[in-house]
Amino acid sequence: MIENFLMIYQALPYLLKGSLITIGLVGGALFLGFIIGIPMAVGQVYGSRFIANLIYFYVWFFRGLPVLVLLFLFYFGLFSLLRLNLPAFTAAILVLGLRSAAYQSQIFRGSIQSLGEGQMLAARSLGMSKIQAIWNIILPQALRISIPGWSNEYSIILKDSAVTYAIGVMEILTRGNFIATRTYKPMPVFLTCALIFLILTYGGVKILDLLEKKVRIPGYTFGRKEI
Amino acid sequence: MSEFYFIRNILLLPLLEGTLITIKLIVLSIPLGLILGILLAVGRVYGNKLISSICAIYVIFFRGTPLLIQLFILYYGLPSIGIFFSPLTAAIIGFILCSGAYHSEYIRGAIQSIKSGQMMAAEALGMSRVQAILYIILPQALRRAIPGCSNEIIYLVKYSSLAFMVTLIELTGAGKIIASRYFKYTEVFLVVGIIYLLMVSVVTKFLNMLEKKLKIPGLE
Amino acid sequence: MQSDKDIVLEVEDIHKKYREEKILKGVSFKVKKGETKVIIGPSGTGKSTLLRCINQLTIPDKGRVWLEGEEVTHTKKSINQFRQKIGMVFQDFNLFDHLTALGNIEIGLVKVKRMDKDKARQKAMEELKQVGLENQAYLYPAQLSGGQKQRVSIARALAMDPKVMLFDEPTSALDPELIGEVLEAIKNLAIQGMTMVLVTHEIGFARSVANEIIFIENGKILESGSPYKLFNNPEYERTRRFLKKITELYGESIEKR
Description:
heterotrimer; C: Rossmann fold; 4-stranded antiparallel sheet
């Protein structure tokens, strides 16, 4: 029993370096998904029918395929086809980010739509252009409403990051597997990996909860009809 | 072009075989996962402190850790303490244990959204707790949980692909094998993707039909 | 001198705290067979809690309850058997939303009384007829009006053949024009000789059906007596003031209906 703890203690630095990779994956994917997802959401709500349909197709594709299939398709397939020699880490961020954009766009779309059209009407009546209204009025509110859904997206991407094991990214699970196959002690190793993920998951969600509290507008129920 | 159709002849059959395995996985995991979800939810809401805590810890673990790690523990980890599962068994058990945790959160939310008056009225008639839960609370809660649980079921259809990571040759696995042998990753995985999209569409339609059928007239 | 055999329900010294606040501070009363007792009092004085202490949906901190001579509190027998003999009608109806009107009545008969399914259906239909809703048998609660829901709820309780019926502000959640039909159903029950304890604000109605009115204030019974006595000759000024206030609020509306 003691030897297990000793082994874990020795393996920890190696595993924790993996956490950094994992956090990098998650951060990168969330960021990419964010900057692509918001314009997509705006496009779906305020854009032309053609644009909305295009976006809808993108969302349907990236949400309908399993992560594993997307990783194989892009890393082994499309990137080679396009002669892109991306390292696995970068490729993973790209794929996870494009996929997250699909999910995040729907979160933001729901938030924007829950505001009701009154906000836009009021902004336009003051003389703002559509873009000004979206930037100054709609998005500040919609983003706040989106935090809970976004928090959910964070924990999903965190867990999906383990799947990048399949294309060789040196994140937590890959390193854990490396150690497990060499020490012949899979149980303690994988349980430790699980524990690290647990801490990252619930720690991250807690931080996002604090963020939500910090940016909350006092007393405001964000246009939701029921209280 | 003819090369393409040639690929179709080589590709399709193994993919279909893989799809059958995937369907087997899904059909076995979904109902049992739901049942586990119901048990966990009822345990958390109506159980005593011990049962409620155990269910809570279970849910925290299985929702807070990646499904892939859970599968690894089941398939690669357990043998070191003497428990050996076949890839299929490990995958099915893993899916049941994991989706059960997710289902239980939706069902728990639904149970807690039922007015307390329903339980009171049931008990006032002389029903025992168990009877009230079985005949009054769950029929209503499960209907309310359908959107959430449907979501989780769709997730399972997609995440069944992870079974390949514990050496089960389902749809994704079949694709990878062919693709690596012929170096045709893009084509193969586009086809694989289309098959998943089809499966997801069918399941979604089915679940929507189910929800309509179970709707209580008058209740929005 | 009434014989003890006549007493269907006896409630002795009920105490109940909610969080740190004492809601019931020792309430006792007896109900004879065929009697209608009406409980009135300011809001929040624990009248609902009192009713729930009778069928143990809420366990009192102190006090005892007897049904037909058998003790309900601290009993070794399963409380469910007692609850079958005590009918309860709630302010919020609490109909089972996933069952039809008929289904709501049947379920208690089938699952609790273990009646045969066909017999249960027959009996349920009869009870619906009694409250005038046989045409609504296959409708769901969401499709019924408030007054109809409450009448189904009454039928549901009656189907169990209870020895006593408890009504917890049965009309408080209803629109004014629907109150009449429910009061009429309750009045019919009184005429048929059902033993009842009724918590209500409908003071005009209380006056006409009650054998005895109990006024609860601050968790205790301040005064009780026949309607005549309480309205014309109450012992306490507070009783007079309270009766005057709710007669102004609710009594008038009875005449307008």
